[in-house]
Design goal:
This protein is an alpha+beta fold. Helix content is 32%, strand content 26%. It is built from 6 helices and 7 strands, in the order βαααββαβαβαββ. The protein has helices at residues 14-27, 35-42, 44-49, 84-89, 112-126, 143-150; strands at residues 4-8, 55-61, 66-73, 95-103, 131-136, 152-156, 168-172. Strands 1-2-3-4-5-7-6 form a 7-stranded mixed beta sheet, with helices on both faces. α5 links the parallel β4 and β5 (131-136). The radius of gyration is 15 Å and the shape is globular. The two termini are 28 Å apart.
């Protein structure tokens, strides 16, 4: 088994992080790049490296290649497209939103995503966030079970009339 390391992204990691993110939205989500959803992927440095209360973590393999990403920003869920009660419960500013927790397929099931989340939660604690929120698409293999193991469901759109967007919304406990 190859070793990996996790660290806060530096400017030289941005291209590798972008590649992991784009590969994921094309391969795993099947959506491809959608500007209104994925603008941060085009410029991860501006989205995550520059703002003081945002961060991007990367995992590298033994050859120094970026194999996974995990990001956090201070933007709560927007309404629309998310339900209004979630936008009210998790406002931008005091809410840390986990984003882009992506691991290349050949490196999955090695604990990398869990370690990325642990690092992001420590960042949230250090930066005085009041809540940690995320949403996931349950159609992505393993995503729902992974997030259920770490947090609590605060809204499952599959239970909404018409199924909403089919997204599951989670809160992850802080101070883990």
């Amino acid at each position: 088994m190859r070793k990996f390391s996790i660290r806060t992204a530096e400017p030289q990691d941005v291209d590798g992080a972008r590649a992991v993110m784009l590969d994921t939205v094309y391969r795993d989500f099947g959506s491809g790049y959608v500007p209104r959803w994925h603008a941060d992927i085009v410029d991860p440095a501006a989205a995550y490296l520059t703002p003081v209360r945002h961060t991007l973590l990367v995992a590298h393999d033994g050859d120094g290649q970026v194999i996974a990403t995990g990001a956090l920003d201070s933007r709560g869920p927007l309404h629309p497209p998310n339900p209004a009660h979630l936008a009210a419960r998790y406002p931008s500013g005091p809410t840390a939103q986990l984003r882009r927790i992506y691991v290349r397929p050949g490196h999955r099931r090695r604990g990398i995503a869990r370690l990325l989340v642990t690092g992001l939660l420590a960042f949230a604690d250090d930066h005085a966030y009041r809540a940690v929120y995320l949403h996931t698409d349950p159609a992505v293999p393993g995503a729902e079970a992974f997030w259920r193991s770490l947090g609590k469901v605060v809204h499952d759109e599959r239970d909404d009339p018409g199924g909403g967007q089919g997204i599951i919304h989670f809160e992850i406990p802080m101070g883990r």
